[in-house]
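Ticket reopened. Same input as before:
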Amino acid sequence: MIPALFMHFQAHLLNSYKRERRIILFCYAIAICIEFLNGTSLFVPSVRPQMVFRYFMEPGPAYPLFIIYFFICSTYGLVKFFYAYRKSTGTTHNQMKYLFGGSLLGYIGGSANFLPVYDLQVFPYPYGSYAIGSYTLITAYAIVRHQLMDIEVVIKRTLVFAGLVGSVLAVVSLMAFVSQELLIHYVNIPRWLSNVIAAAIIAATYGRLRSWLTNVTDRYLFQKKYDYKELLRKFTDEAMVTVDLKDLVEKTVTTLTELVKLDACSLLLLNKESRRYELVASRGANGRALALEEQEPFITFLRETHAPIGTDGELGKVRYPSAMMDRLAALKARLCLPLNVHEELIGVLCLGKKKSDEEFTKDDLDILLPLSKTLGIAVSNAQLFDDLAKTQALAAQKEKLAVIGTLSAGINHEICNPLGIVKAQCEAFLLDLEDGILIGKAAQDVLDRSSTIMRMALQQIDRATAITQKLSNFAKPIKEVNAQPVAVEKEIDEVLLLVGHDLQLERIDVRKEIQPDLPSIIADRRQLQEVLFNLVRNAAQAIKPPGSITIRAREREGQVRIEIEDTGSGIAPDKLEKIYDPFFTTKEPGKGTGLGLFIVRQIIERNKGRISVESVVGKGTTFFLDFPAARTAAVAGAARG
Amino acid sequence: MAKLVVIDDEAEFTNAISQFFGARGYEVHVALTGSSGLQLVEAQQPDVVLMDLKLPGMDGDDVLRQLRRTRPQVPVIMITAYNDGGKTRDRLLAMGAFAHFDKPVSSLRDLAETVKRALSTAAK
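Engineering reply: fixed in the latest deploy. New output:
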């Protein structure tokens, strides 16, 4: 019977039962025949004691037929397992490895029992029988470790079922106990009524109890899987609120690689200019940066079907054209998921093989497909945000340049003053010469005076040059953030140098109260200047002259706080909460783009600072900027070092 | 001998002015701030005041206003570095300044002429 059952087993496992049904039925027929003929002298004419057995058979004339039948069946099965092992990948590959190994060992051991039948006592007899046991062990291992059968489902269902049966029994017996033992002395509840009540309770709680039991089994018995799914779900939520594109794509590949334990993971996004899908982030993959054309079959398939491409599980059965399979191989991917937004394919998420060599199961797809959908939206959001940031940077730059135009008075002053000095000194000397005032003076005195004038002239030229450099530096668009220790007072002075004269002309008094020994902050100094510049200019625009702007800076709980206080018109509470909104402005048309404070806040947050505001209508507004003091950072750095 | 008070925080500029006028027979006194300038005017009783607008502490507008009030007979010549197309000039002249020069001053000769004119105006 063993060979027939083995044939049946392998056929079912390798999905070839339909094709091999006749052969299997034939095997069963032979088995039944042999069973009937077993007692006759054809097969086992008599028994004798042998080794540990009291009765060991003597082979009859037809016994070799049985041996041939046994070997044909087992060899057939083993060869099939071996081919399945060679052909398969992932989990199936592992399953087949164990099945083939286990069966081979079991059959070699088992067939050793044929030897003593003919009195051949050579190895592996009599130890071969133990190998049969190992076959069971190895197969059991494959079942549990490599999901050879849907063992999880079996265990889950069994546990849930057991829990439910137990609960039903508990309810019935509790009701019986309560009604027949406890209450019988007071009320006479008939047996049927107590059963009806118990049934009602069971009916009412059944659904909930079942889902609770399922959850508990899932959580405790299959915790690892549950965690991985839970974490991926959490990541999906997180991805939705990540607006920094670079951050998002990096986080995506890192998280997937870690959580799903992948060998490689990469993300391709559509480059709108080149119209190609280009690599933006990858982990583990040693492949070259591959770009896919918008019109190639691989991309068209993902765009049109919104379905994944893969080699595992159900996907493995799809017959993709070889061009697509080549792409999959070039991407070092086992599974490629489309990132679709509406009908557009914005990117492709490529997952390499799992470290465990397991296949991507339907379970995996159930979580990865929604993830790729959400990711598509998240990436598209981040891209929009990226575009917006670029537009904003452009708007900020325009605004800055427009403002610099209005700074002419201040700039003029800073340049005309040194020029005025140089001109007056030189002219005074020349006019003295012209008017004969230098006649009769000692040559050394004249030389001393002329060299003093020249030295002074050089100094003043440097002074004028410095201001033009500061201005052009300030006007330049900020491309890269360069965080470094920044002395707040110095930056305040530089900004006041640019705006101070304007303010003076407008009859706005500027006061500065800087705490001595103020620690530096870590920031991009040009961005800090831009922030201060914007805030001071806003303050000035809020003032109906005369008025004043006070700039304070002091250390407070490891933070450097910069305050910019004006005696302007103030901001009404309902408008106060909107001041950072893009394009919100209370200024007259043409006086501001409404992006000033929006940009200010962005810059501050990018420099790890915070901005807050207090305002009293009719009295004025104060902006507070808090940045971490660099001193504490330096201390922390030293402690680590 | 005519007496001048120069009020300007640009020391190098006041050097040039006092050098120039000093060599041409003027008695020149220099102050670097608005308030010290007012004190100097009180102490020296100058014939003409030459003054900048942007001054530390008390600024040029206030100094001019006060001088016009306390010493209306003393002509004040303003020398500023704003170059704002006459906006500042008009404002200062309206406040009673005798004349206004932008820095860099077109020529010290022009300035000297204006001082002379101021002196003769004051003498009348």
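The domain at 3-123 of chain B is CATH 3.40.50.2300 (Rossmann fold). Residues 108-123 of chain B form the longest helix (16 residues). Please confirm and we'll close it.
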